[in-house]
Design goal:
The chain has three domains: 132 residues, no CATH class; 91 residues, Alpha-Beta Plaits, CATH 3.30.70; 32 residues, no CATH class. With 363 residues, the chain is an alpha+beta fold. 24% of the residues lie in helices and 17% in strands. The longest helix is centred in the middle third of the chain and has 22 residues.
């Protein structure tokens, strides 16, 4: 009996921010089983084939596939000198049988190969006739492309290889360390990936009611922790890592025009966007090691000043967040309370609102 991925609503950006345009899971699903709404998503039990592609596409891990428990798989695989992943529909043998090879995300593959575990991906010849079809093949290509980007920055001389059995092979061979086999998976890179990397549409400028943002405790993800382990192993003088949609990490920048509304920090599901406050100062902080690149902070920013940078430069885990924007606190001349404002002001927004209300009532 087929099961379906577990959905954890408080991790979903569509749940956290009602106007979010995120549709990664729906775009990854080859069976149209994911229904999007302002409340999050719903998975159709009758349509879902539990291929785990939606779970692999979700940077916040709002979806968990019980037939691809990534951490348990890694714990077993990392003990082997070489491991073969075989997709279940192909009926090939392997050390690990997975519902779809496209469900093996870049963090998993990079973690194994960086530790010298050679990886073979068996069953790719079956993609053309598989029920998971082109979506799984495209996502696999996207993940392999991201692994190559990580390898290039790390100077992956010690990294093991990822190989794909040639089209003519009838049975998958064990992965070796022969670099000549690396070209075998290059046919996947870029194939259909454009349909998986469409940018999230920017919401047109409009007031965001407080009810549009749902509060929930921040969390971390297993995939982000794996990436950070890889980042910490990078040499200090590493080259910048190009941002990639299959690497669930991002560095956020801010242009002039921040209104200090704090919506980004309230909507951020992982706590990467933070409000740092003292008795005299206010700051918008960013913790790179917690960011999964979900993009909800960029979506919720009404002045549209937050943006993702094109490169990831400082990859190490910092003890304190980077302050993106800072303001001094001001004291209201009327109520004597401290407040923050992007420009100098005599009275606080609350007193300004009282004045506006009084004027509307009494003229």
């Amino acid at each position: 009996m087929l099961t379906q991925p577990e959905y954890r609503a408080t991790r979903c950006t569509r749940y956290r921010y009602r106007y979010s345009g995120c549709s990664r899971c729906a775009e990854a699903c080859p069976h149209d089983a994911v229904e999007l709404s302002d409340e999050g998503i719903r998975i159709s039990a009758s349509a879902c084939r539990n291929c785990a592609l939606c779970a692999a596409a979700c940077p916040t891990e709002a979806l968990l596939a019980d037939n691809l428990p990534r951490i348990e798989v890694l714990k077993r695989a990392v003990k082997l000198p070489e491991v073969t992943f075989a997709c279940a529909p192909s009926e090939f043998n392997g050390d690990e049988i997975v519902p779809c090879l496209g469900g093996l995300d870049a963090a998993m593959l990079a973690y194994l190969t960086s530790r010298g575990v050679a990886v073979t991906l068996a069953g790719t010849r079956h993609c053309a006739e598989c029920v998971h079809g082109a979506r799984g093949e495209a996502r696999l290509g996207l993940h392999l492309e991201a692994v190559e980007a990580l390898r290039g920055v790390a100077g992956g001389d010690k990294w093991a290889e990822i190989s794909v059995p040639d089209e003519g092979e009838t049975e998958p061979a064990k992965a070796g360390h022969d670099p000549s086999r690396r070209h075998l998976f290059r046919r996947f890179i870029g194939r259909g990936a454009d349909q998986l990397t469409r940018p999230i549409s920017v919401i047109e400028a409009q007031p965001v009611p407080l009810k549009a943002i749902r509060f929930a405790a921040p969390f971390s993800t297993a995939g982000r922790e794996l990436l950070q382990i890889l980042f910490e192993a990078e040499p200090e003088d590493h080259a910048p890592l190009p941002a990639h949609p299959a690497l669930y990490a991002a560095q956020v920048g801010v242009r002039p025009g921040c209104t200090a509304c704090e919506a980004c920090a309230r909507a951020c599901p992982t706590g990467a966007m933070q409000i740092r406050e003292s008795g005299t100062a206010w700051g918008l902080g960013f913790q790179f090691s917690r960011c999964v690149g979900c993009g909800v902070c960029v979506e919720v920013c009404q002045p549209h000043v937050l943006h993702f940078q094109d490169e990831l430069k400082s990859l190490s885990k910092a003890s304190e967040p980077v302050i993106l924007h800072a303001l001094g606190k001001q004291r209201c001349a009327r109520c004597d309370r401290f407040f923050i404002s992007p420009a100098p002001a005599e009275i606080c927004p609350i007193c300004e609102g009282d004045d506006a209300d009084f004027a509307s009532l009494f003229g």
